[in-house]
Amino acid sequence: MIETINPATGEKLEEFEYTGGSEVDEKLERAVAAQKAWRRLSFSERGTIMSAAAKVLRSRTDELAATATREMGKPIAQAIAEVEKCAWCCEYYAENAATYLADEIVETNAQKSYVGFRPLGIVLAIMPWNFPYWQVFRAAAPALMAGNAMVLKHASNVSRSALEIESVFRQAGAPEGIFTTFLLKSDAIAGLIADNRIVAATLTGSEGAGMSVASAAGHALKKVVLELGGSDPFIVLADADIDAAAKVAVRARFQNNGQSCIAAKRFIVEQSVYEDFTTKFAAAAAAQVLGDPLDQKTELGPVARDDLRDALAKQISASVSAGARIVTGGKAVERKGFFYEATILADVTPSMAVFREETFGPAAAVMQAENAEHAVELANDSNFGLGGNLWTRNIDAAQKLAATIQSGNVFINGMTASDPRLPFGGIKRSGYGRELGAFGIREFVNIQTVWIGPEKAGTAQKHGAE
Question: 78: which of 85, 111, 173, 299 lies 20 to 30 Å off by Cα?
Answer without folding.
Answer: 173
